[in-house]
Structure formats: C-alpha cells, structure tokens
Amino acid sequence: MWDRSEGAKVANRMSKTIHHTMSPDYDAMELGEKAPDLSNEKLSPKPRTSRPDLQLQPRLTFEENLHPITSGLALYDASGSDGLVRNDRAISIGFRTLSIQISDSLRVSGPNDGKRTGKAGENDPNFFQQLTFHTITGQQLCQQLNVSPERGLDASVAARRLQRDGKNTIAQKRPQYLWKLLGYVFGGFCSILWVGVVIFFICWRPLSNPPSPTNLALAILVILVILLQASFSAFQDWSTGRVMNSILGLLPSECVALREGETIKMPASELVVGDIVVLSVGKKVPADIRIIEASDIRFDRAVLTGESEEIEGSVDSSDDNFLETKNIALMGTHVTNGHGKGVVVLTGGKTVMGRISKLTSNTKPKPTLIQQEITRFVRIIIILTVGLASAILLTWVGWLRRDHFAFINVVGMLNDVMGCVVAFIPEGMPIGVALTLSLIARRMKAVNVLPKSLSTVETLGCVNVICSDKTGTLTQNRMSVISAGFVDQEFAVDEYHIILAAAGSAAANAAQQMLHKASVLCNGATFDSASAHLPIFERAINGDATDGAVLRFAESVGPASSIRDANDQIFQIPFNSKNKWMLTMYAESPTASDEKRAGNLVFVKGAPDVLLPKCTSYWSGITGETKPFNAAARSELVARQEAWSRGGQRVILVCMRHYISNEAIGSEGYGDEIMQNCLQDLVIIGLLGIMDPPRPETARTVSDCRRAGCRVFMVTGDFGLTAAAIGRQVGIITRHGEPDSLSQVEWRLTEKGSRSDVNAGSDRIQSSLVLEGKDLLNMTNLHWNVVCRYEEIVFARTTPEQKLSIVNSFRERGSVVAVTGDGVNDAPALKAADVGIAIVTGSDVAIEASDLVLMGGFDSITDGIRLGRLVFQNLQKVIGYLLPAGSWSEIWPVILSVYFGVPLPLSSFLMIIICCFTDLFPCLSLIMEKEEFDLLTLPPRNHKRDHLINMKIYVHSYLFIGVMEAVIAHSMFFLYMWKHAGIPPRDLFFAFEKYADGFHGYTQEELINFNNTGQSVYFVALVILQWGNLLSIRNKRLSILQADPFSAKRRNPWLLLGALFAFVVAVFVTAVPGINSLFATAPVPIEFWLIPIPLALGILIMDEMRKLVVRCFPKGPLARIAW
What we know:
Layout: H1 4-16, H2 63-72, H3 96-109, H4 118-122, H5 138-144, H6 155-165, H7 177-186, H8 190-204, H9 213-250, E1 254-259, E2 262-267, E3 276-280, E4 288-300, H10 302-305, E5 311-312, E6 328-329, E7 334-346, H11 352-359, H12 369-403, H13 410-424, H14 429-446, E8 449-451, H15 454-460, E9 465-468, H16 470-474, E10 480-485, E11 490-492, H17 493-502, H18 510-521, E12 526-527, E13 541-542, H19 545-557, H20 560-565, E14 569-573, E15 581-587, E16 600-606, H21 608-611, E17 615-619, E18 626-628, H22 631-646, E19 650-659, H23 670-678, E20 682-691, H24 698-707, E21 711-715, H25 720-730, H26 742-752, E22 765-772, H27 773-776, H28 781-787, E23 790-796, H29 800-812, E24 817-821, H30 827-832, E25 835-839, H31 844-849, E26 852-854, H32 860-900, H33 908-918, H34 920-926, H35 951-980, H36 985-988, H37 1004-1033, H38 1054-1071, H39 1073-1079, H40 1087-1090, H41 1092-1112, H42 1117-1121
Parallel strand pairs: 9-21, 9-24, 17-20, 21-23, 22-23, 24-25, 25-26
Antiparallel strand pairs: 1-2, 1-3, 3-7, 4-5, 4-6, 4-7, 8-26, 10-11, 10-20, 12-13, 14-15, 15-16, 16-19, 17-18, 19-20
C-alpha cells in the first residue's frame, strides 16, 4: 500500500495549489492536439522522481497509471514552458487532475522552486543531470511529447510551440557597446591624442592669461579628429560584420524533418521540441535530439569535446549522464557516418551547445595578422613620438627654460611638445586602413570568395602549399558509369544495356542479372520525385554522387523501383571514408532445400583493394556460374582494375553473400556482429568504372597557383592510379614517365645517408610523387623531410586522419598550407590548415570547418590569392604616402624651432589639417588601385619576416621622399621670409627670443603676421608636393608612362578627385578670414601656389629615376633597399 505519511504530504500540497489546476498554462495537452491511443502501451513501472517526498511506492494496484506522474517530475519537455513533462495524457482520466496538481505544487512550493523553470532552470548547474529523455524508451518519449514517429508534428502544433518557445537559435553574444566605444575613442593613436587634448585645454586656461582661443580651438579640433577616427573604426567593424553576416546567411542552415507525414527540408531555426528529424552523413545536428532509429550512425563531437574520436550513436541508453549517453545527438556536432532518426528534446539556448555558448561568450578574440601588423606600427610610432616629446621636454627643462625662457615659456613648450606629437602621428592612417579592409571585403564578395574573417584574406596571400581534395573540388562531382565488367568479361556500358534492356533479361545470365540487382539494392541514392518526368541522366539525385551514378546506370538498364519494391531492406552500413565500402542486407525467404532457415542476402560495394582480400569466389560473366577466386582470376581482375584506373576511372567492386545472423536485428550487438563476420567469404559479382570529369577551370587554376609560387597537391581517398590519372589531366602531375613512390623516397634517404641536409629547406625535388595511405603508415620524420621537397605530389587512399597528418607535416616544416575540400572526410584537414577553403556546394561539416567559402568555381581561389596580396600592397602604399608629409616633414619644423631657434615654420593646427584632411582623401584614392602587375608572379609573402611596415618603407618615406619634401617646404618658408619680410635665413637661425619687437625693424604684430603667412606657405608647399608623391607611390616598379592613371588598365579617377579635395581644403584653411583669425593662418601669395607645382613634378621625376635604376639593375644596392 501507499505510505500514508507520503500521501498526506501530497494531499496537503494539492490542497494548497488547487487554484492552479484550471490554468491553461499547465494543461498537459496542446490546444487542438489529439491524444494518441495508448491502450496498447505498457510502460515500465520503475518510478523516477527528483522529489523524495513525492515518491510513489510500487505496491499500488494502479502503479502503471501512476508511474508517469512520478517519472514526469524528473523530465524536461518543451511541451510546457516550465520544462516539466506532463504525462497525464498517458494516465487514465480519473488520475489526470492529480498529476496536474502535483506538477503545479512543485512549481509553487517545491524546495527547488525556480531551478527547473524558465531561465532559472537554464542556469541550474545540475540541469543535465536531471534530464531523463535518454533513459526512457523512444515510444514513451514520443507519447510524452505527443508526436508520432511516423507522421511527425502537425504544422499548427509546431507553429504554437515555435511561438511559445522561440526559434531554435543560439543567442549571439551581445556586443559590449560601451567597451567598443571606449576602444574606438581611446585605442590606438587616440590614446596619445587625448593627452594633447588635455594639454591644449590647460594651455587655454589657466596657463594662458588672457585665455588663448587658439589653444581652445586646437583642443576641440583634436577631439573632432579623435571622433573622426573612432567613426571610421566603427564603420569598419560594422561593414565587416555586415559582410560576415551575409556569409553566415549563405551557409546551409536547413535540416530534414517529418511534418504531417511528409519528409521536408526546413530551416533548422524553426525546429521545435517534438519534431522528428532525419540525420544523414555530412550534416550538422540541428538541435539536441534523442535517437529513435539508427543505422551505423556516428558523430564527431570535436566541436564540443575537442576529441577527434568518433562517437557511435545508438537507440538504447549507454549512460545515465545525458552528456555521455550514445542515444543523444548534440546540437552542432556532425554526422560522420550512417543515418538515423530522432526526436528533438532541447532547442536553442537550452541545448548543450547553447549553454556552452553562454559560458564562452566572454572569450577574447585573437587579433588578426593585419591587426597585429597595425598594432606593431602604432607601437613603433608611439615610442618614437614619446621619445621625441621627452627629448623636447628635457631640452626645455635643462637649457631653454634657463637661457631662452622668453622664446619658449611653459605654454610654448607644451605647444611644441604637442606639435611633436601631432606631427609624428599619421592620424589619417587608421581611417585609410579601415576603408581599405572594407573595400577588399566587398571585392572578394564580388568574385564569389567569402572569407569568414579578414585575416583569411591576408593569410591567403602567404600560402605556398595547397592540398586539394579531388572529388567535387578538382572534378565536377558529376559521375557516370562508363565501364561494366566481371572477373572474366568486360562490357562497354552500351553493350550491357543491349543485353539486359534491348534483348530482355532472359538473354542475360545469372551474373549479369545479379550485377543489375546489386547496383539497385546496394545503393543509398534515390531519384527526386519532382524530376521523375525528366530523362534519366537529367534527374536530380538525393544521395552520394557515386551512388547516383550507379543508380542512373541501373535505371538505364531496367526500372530500379520494381527491384526495390520486391526486396525488404533490414540493415545498412553506409559508405564512409574509413571503411571505403557500403553494405546492405535484405530479408531472404527459406529455400526449398532448407525450409527451416531463412537467411539474409547481403550486398557489399566498395574499393577493390579493400574488398578483394575478403573474397573467395566470383560470378563468371561468361557462364553465369560461381567459381573459386584463385590466383589467375585475381590477376585478371587486378589487371582490369588497373587499366580502368589509368584511364581516370574510379573502380567499384560489387560483391554479395548469404548470411544468417546470431544477434537479433536492431539489437546493440547486431551491428558489431555484421562488422566482424559478414565481410568474409564474399562472392564477387562484378566491377563498375565511374568517370568524374575535371572542372573546366581546374587545369588553368592549378597553373596559376604554380605561377603564384604555390605547390598544388592532390589528397584523395581514391585509388592511386585513378588519382594519378586525374592529376595528369588537371596539371598537378606534369612530369613524363612514372611518378616516384615510397621506394624512391627511401632511395633518396639512402643516397643522403640520412645526413642533416635531408630537410624540407633543401632544394626542391623536380619530380612527381604518388603515395598511398598504406605508405604513410611507415613514414618517419626523415621520410617527410624528403616528401615535403617534392614539387608534385598525389596522396591517394588517404583517411581523414592521414589528411590531417599531411597538413601538419607540411606546416611543421615551414609551409603555409591551404586545404580545399567539400566532404566530411576533409573537415579535420580544413580545420588544421592555415586557410581552410570549402566549396559552397559541399557538406555542412566542411563549410563549418573552413575559413573561406568559394561560392563559384575552383578558379575563385586565384582571385582570393590576388586580393590577399593586393590588400597588403595597397596598405603599404597608403602608409608610404602618409609618412613623408604627415610625419617626417612635420617633425622637422618642431626640431628647427626648439634646437635652432627658428620661428616655428608649421603650426600644430596645420599639422592636423595635413594628417586628417589634405592627406586623407588622396590616400583613400590609393586603396582603389588595381594590381600594378600580375601579383601571381610574386612569391608568397613570409608573414614572419615581411612586415606591413619595414625598414625599406621607412627609408623610402623618410630618407628619400620625406627629405625632399621637408627641404623644399622649408625652402619655401625661408624664401617667403626673405622675399616678403627681407629677413635672410641666416638671421632666422638661432634667433630664439630675438625674434620679437624690433627684429629687423618690425613690430611684434608684423613679425607674427610674417610667421603665420610663412607657416601657411610651408603648408601649401607640402599639400602640392604630395601630389608628386601620390603619382609616384602608386607604382612600386613601373614607370608612370607604363601605368598612368588615365589608361583603361590602371585607370583611377579617384586620384584627381583626392588631389582636388586637398587643394580645396588648403584654399579654405588659408583664405577664410574666420579661420585666419582663430587658427593663426594667412592668405598665401600666388607665386607660392605655383612654385611647388614643378617641384612636385621633380619629386615624381626623382622617383622615376630611382625606379629606372632598380629595373635596370635588379640586383644592385639600390634595388636591395627599394620597397
């Protein structure tokens, strides 16, 4: 009997919560849902509860009806927003109110109240320990979720659940807008510019008496500069984010589910708890799913656990822990083998992936290579700036304050220090970089190359080894059977058609009929019903491309549907890249000779080299009888296989056998028995030769990659001869004669005597090499040192683990590796590579593991390499343009003023105008530059040695262009002072405080006006001189006569617009009276607008002469330091 004390507790709690019993929120049934017929269901009486005070004793006579009450207390289910399963639909009507009241009492007054409901339940650390989806039977679970495994949910029910529970998406990390804003405003150069703001404010008040409006205006101007930089940084993030979001929107996000009795494709985000989902190889699990049907299904949980070992899926529970059991497929993991069906139990943020996403939302992203390079440049500039500012401060403290205080007081010293800061920092560079990266991202999208991050673009320019999968990447993945044969006979496909189709099956012997039957039954592909009216070779295929080719071949001989309808499949092991075979099993009726035993008919299809050792007999195509598979038959079959493979065909061996199992079908040990025993004593039926033509663009792409300094290797699971044949067709193998094998690699080791010079850095081996997976098993590091030197390599018969090993071996020897692929077996290598490149038509797993997605053909990879190199070169051009005027030519006026007593030739205000306005827009025109020459002719960049800003660029910008601009601009300043004020340059040097009232007979006001005008002359000279730098910097090697900005090939109208904008700003700053009075500028005499023009042309000519010398003497001293 039921314990009375327990019953009293329940009754007391029920009485306290009676007002909840009519609440529709707690109703166990969805409105409009029809309860399933449970009359034939017998549930296990084993009670489960998370509340000991509600434990029901099994001595009750109605224990089977009460069990769902207790078990439901420990279950979570989206059929109620509280996450508790309401099992009253499985209880007789007389007890439903009791179950509702007990569930409600838990919500109201349970000791763990709030831990299992709503968001609080999601934060419960014991959340998954309390789940029991995996411990009950699949039929019980479907009843509790009110769903039929054969029919799925009704659309109306699914819509209500979706509205209540929300979409099946993981909430993205909410941007920390405050921290982002602080990073934009105080990061990079802005950090030191804020120091300038504070100093200018101090100089305005209280240090200046009366307050200086110029310093106040400068403080405000610097703040505007900071806001301008912050705005462009924010724009870069927004633009990049928009591109990345568009990429994510293009990635596959669909799943296959059962709704209203029909199998449909639907967005994974619209899945709800209770949906029946079909899982197949290569797809990503769209939610946390309880498996109710499984056929050799396996999962890769590396995305969650980091372990590469595959996890086998099963229908039965293998562990009490929800996270460890094999009958739960976790969201985000990948199906690597087999297929199955399951019911969704958790969605969105409630899934394991969702909860992990919350835990990792604060992970700091790793800076990209471009960001690292820019940070390095910023650090160098800030160190130099602080060093110069400190030198000026120490000079004032130790010398000028004592001997020339009237020349530079405290305010003057602070203005000079800030002039140094403003001068040396190229404030326009962050803006130029932001726009350059955004533009390149859009250009890549335009050529169907979608990077997941901008670092991928830059890294792609450094790649020197490309490991490519064959099927679907180098080839079209449009396979067709072109050869059919037996051990002792070979047919052209047309002949086989005539025998089985035209002449009727009666004309074919048993072997020929069996090959046709096996082609249909050992096949995982089906025709899409929507294309059934089309010709056979135009119909859409659901399934693997190889199976699709075999199915088209079989259908062209005779209808496949009639064969499938006449045979009942009871078991299947789909093809995978490890086993390299597929197995199907069909029920077989007892024969007349053995009426008591009914066996199973097994078909196996796969790689000949894997299946041949398991074969003991074969069907004779000539006699239609089975014969022993002796050495002569083996030699004949192997010769046929090799002949077909040399022609580029993928050879498939088709076998059969009869098998009687010991284990029950569907039991946990059944699959293990089949794997161990069923692949023995096989009977060879025949061979099929499948051709997958290369993509039209593949050969050209391989050639272009070679020109770019990238070695292109094939890494495939195909037979070695087939892979080598395709390699020759696409240009991966270009050498005449037979390629080297492992024996030649060992010979090279022997010749070298295993000396230390056998390493990856030695000269390349100008030969071809073909290695198979079995060869890789016996290779040591010394072998890899030799292999990594080969110019042309084909890796055949490789497993996913071996593909990963190949990538790591090349990376360990200094190569920057890109991997292209589209299949599940490519995913580990894609993830490990420096750049993983997936084809958009590939599997979800491959796209998920990749860094970059090719939306078009294989030739898009060369566009990606070009743009990766172009973005780096254009950024160098932008910085090379900014440094001469925006840094070098601005620091020298401060140095001359502080150390040589010259009146300041350039004010801080005009320095800021140069950096942020007159230089900014012309430099932005440089990011529109096209490639100067074919960038694929350059060797890949060494990202460890070749930096964005290097000593060559500093030498060119500072000591070549910068020196010319600084000398000319100072000459314009001194020319104006001598011509218009009559003050020769020798009198301006070491003038210090003498440049005051009475100097050369001028008043203080007149001297200030001369100095203001001289500063404006210096400013105008720099603006115009930069035009010459703009025209010269756009070409690193070519003459402007070879690549002018007007011809179609290198046309860039933005150059003229940028120069025009700079001119307008210069006129505005020097001619507007309000600007003149506020910022101490002055109108510039007309001759000083004209004199710098031929001098700018002179800078262009000087650089043209430098380029000419470099072109004529490419190994001379000038060429070695040329950027």
